[in-house]
């Protein structure tokens, strides 16, 4: 994609985020695990104020404990310093 000056424009994917998982020894174990960003809304929906945006760990990012996750919806700007929950339930069969 080229802009007016002939420089390449950087593509920005709003549903993809880089997440740092604390206390990780092996990032590959977290691949395809589900992640939830839980936040509190102002109005009730289905009888509760808490809502969540679901995601899945897609691949590692670099050599550190950072992973790339793809969320179902765009994350709000307040989620930059927020915490996410990692669910350990989906286990890949080739990890055994």
From TrEMBL:
One of its GO terms (molecular function) is structural constituent of ribosome. InterPro entries: Ribosomal_eL33 (IPR001780), Ribosomal_eL33_sf (IPR038661), Transl_B-barrel_sf (IPR009000). Keywords: Ribonucleoprotein, Ribosomal protein. GO terms for cellular component: ribonucleoprotein complex; ribosome. GO terms for biological process: translation. Belongs to the eukaryotic ribosomal protein eL33 family. This is 60S ribosomal protein L35a. It comes from Ceratopteris richardii.
């Amino acid at each position: 994609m080229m802009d007016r000056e002939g420089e390449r424009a950087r593509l920005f994917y709003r549903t993809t985020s880089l997440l740092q998982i604390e206390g990780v020894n092996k990032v590959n174990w977290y691949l395809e695990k589900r992640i939830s960003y839980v936040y509190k809304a102002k109005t009730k929906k289905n009888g509760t104020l808490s809502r969540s945006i679901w995601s899945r760990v897609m691949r590692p990012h670099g050599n550190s404990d950072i992973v790339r996750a793809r969320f179902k919806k765009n994350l709000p700007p307040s989620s930059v310093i927020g915490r996410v929950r990692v669910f350990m339930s989906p286990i890949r069969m080739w990890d055994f």
